[in-house]
């Protein structure tokens, strides 16, 4: 049997990464869905639960969760409607918007954090 060309090996590796991502995303959505969240919801809560900063600008969150600004704005609006986050004006720049985790959001994050970590361990640990 002939050896694969190096570029084909890279393409195969890329497809394996995409497949692992898709399987992991589905498993996260299934597990977190029992708590009313999807994986993207959790990622935003996880960023906001970061002890280094009590709030983040929407753009800062966008850079960490790999969502477009518009998709993130819709997600934040949904989390705000559910009482998990609040938005407020940025004191340093009145044009900016900061997002804060509410006590309800912090509690839910603490509840689902072990669920998310367990899924990651199951799907990604070798």
UniProtKB/TrEMBL annotation:
HTH marR-type domain span: 1-126
GO BP terms: response to stress
Keyword Kinase: no
Keywords of this entry: DNA-binding, Transcription, Transcription regulation
GO molecular function, one term: DNA binding
Domain of life where this protein originates: Bacteria
Key word Lipoprotein present: no
InterPro entries: ArsR-like_HTH, HTH_MarR-typ, MarR/SlyA-like, Tscrpt_reg_MarR-type_CS, WH-like_DNA-bd_sf, WH_DNA-bd_sf
PANTHER family linked: MARR FAMILY REGULATORY PROTEIN (PTHR33164:SF99), TRANSCRIPTIONAL REGULATOR, MARR FAMILY (PTHR33164)
Protein name per the record: MarR family transcriptional regulator
Organism encoding this protein: Streptomyces caeruleatus
Lineage, uppermost ranks: Bacteria, Bacillati, Actinomycetota, Actinomycetes, Kitasatosporales
């Amino acid at each position: 049997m002939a050896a694969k060309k190096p570029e084909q090996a890279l393409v195969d590796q890329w497809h394996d990464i995409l497949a692992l991502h898709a399987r992991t995303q589905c498993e996260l959505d299934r597990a977190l869905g029992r708590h009313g969240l999807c994986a993207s919801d959790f990622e935003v809560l996880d960023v906001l639960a970061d002890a280094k900063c009590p709030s983040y600008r929407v753009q800062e969150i966008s850079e960490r969760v790999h969502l477009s600004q518009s998709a993130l704005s819709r997600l934040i609006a949904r989390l705000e409607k559910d009482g998990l986050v609040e938005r407020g004006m940025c004191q340093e720049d009145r044009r900016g918007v900061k997002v804060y985790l509410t006590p309800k959001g912090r509690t839910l994050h603490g509840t689902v954090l072990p669920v998310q970590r367990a899924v990651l361990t199951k799907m990604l640990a070798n």
